Write a sequence for this structure.
């Protein structure tokens, strides 16, 4: 069992990839989202550079609001292919430096060591800087503490304006373990824990558990009664800073794939709605052919102008990768909706057989 887990998190990842190919943007408030046009409706920020975040910008914020808060910001379109290429480069580098890697997304991963973690963290940061990017590294005795340690590293290392001459200065390293858990986490609200969201935190507060220290002192049976026999004890474990210590390097196999789109203008004509459903179904079905995956069920999601969202599904007559069959099924599903309101979003999802299935 490794003694140390390290969580590696790329700093302002999408913006940093843009800086790498456009160095003149370093130090500027850069906002990545949509097509890069803040006047395009219903597009949101996917990444904001540190200088942009100083204006209160965050991921998920409408681009128009971001422009109001930061009128001098540089708005760039999302370039997913470039980000995926950079991510592959980073993960391959982590593999060479640290060995086994558990990938958690394009911009974060876990590695492990049974030696001194600090030299490894420094080596990781140096290797990432050589690629023209920066990262923060959290050191912990399990994944929970390592993940939370990265947050401390970012808080201590980032600045409101990215340094022009020291690309590693915005990154940092921090260690969080059982030894300093209570000191650093005890006074914090329960939603500071990785895995405790606002909803769970509200339920905890309703039974007088407001901080991590409160959760540590809570009665496990009471937690089980309130949250169930699995979730209740799990929350108690989180409160004590315990978590998974094993790396999982096997890639996650998706059980489904979906494609959705929020339209610049509401759709009102049934023929137009059917045409967009057919397009989305075709795109996601063709992607699954490229991945040699077989579909078993199709579902269609409709979100109206009033944000009312509903999904309907239908099992395919037989598992298939036939695009016309999948499209016809999606169209049959959309015909079951009462399309009496303007449509804001459409989505098509395919449920898939395991890849080893004949």
């Amino acid at each position: 069992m490794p003694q140390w887990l390290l969580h590696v998190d790329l700093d302002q990842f999408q913006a940093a990839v843009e800086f790498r190919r456009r160095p003149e943007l370093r130090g500027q408030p850069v906002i990545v989202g949509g097509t890069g046009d803040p006047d395009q409706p219903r597009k949101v920020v996917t990444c904001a550079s540190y200088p942009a975040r100083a204006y209160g910008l965050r991921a998920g914020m409408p681009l128009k609001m971001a422009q109001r808060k930061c009128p001098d910001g540089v708005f760039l379109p999302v370039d997913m292919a470039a980000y995926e290429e950079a991510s592959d480069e980073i993960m391959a580098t982590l593999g060479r430096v640290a060995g086994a890697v558990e990938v958690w997304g394009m911009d974060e991963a876990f590695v492990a060591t049974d030696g001194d973690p600090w030299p490894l963290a420094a080596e990781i940061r140096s290797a990432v800087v050589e690629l023209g990017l920066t990262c923060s590294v959290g050191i912990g005795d399990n994944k929970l503490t390592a993940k939370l340690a990265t947050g401390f590293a970012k808080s201590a290392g980032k600045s409101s304006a990215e340094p022009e001459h020291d690309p590693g200065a915005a990154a940092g390293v921090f260690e969080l373990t059982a030894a300093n858990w209570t000191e650093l986490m005890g006074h914090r609200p329960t939603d500071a824990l990785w895995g405790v969201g606002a909803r769970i935190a509200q339920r905890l507060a309703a039974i007088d558990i407001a901080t991590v220290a409160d959760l540590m002192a809570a009665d496990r049976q009471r937690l089980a009664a309130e949250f169930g026999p699995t979730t209740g004890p799990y929350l108690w474990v989180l409160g004590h800073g315990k978590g998974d210590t094993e790396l999982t390097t096997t890639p996650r196999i998706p059980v489904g794939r979906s494609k959705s789109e929020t339209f610049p203008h509401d759709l009102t004509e049934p023929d137009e709605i059917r045409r967009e459903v057919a397009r989305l179904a075709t795109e996601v079905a063709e992607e699954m052919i490229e991945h040699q995956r077989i579909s078993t069920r199709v579902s269609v999601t409709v979100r109206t102008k009033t944000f009312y969202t509903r999904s309907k599904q239908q099992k395919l007559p037989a598992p298939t990768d036939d695009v016309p069959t999948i499209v016809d099924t999606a169209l049959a599903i959309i015909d079951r909706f009462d399309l009496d309101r303007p449509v804001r979003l459409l989505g098509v999802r395919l449920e898939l057989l395991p890849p080893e299935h004949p």
User: Anything to note?
Assistant: Confidence is low (pLDDT under 50) at residues 158-170. Residues 287 and 293 are 9 Å apart (CA to CA).
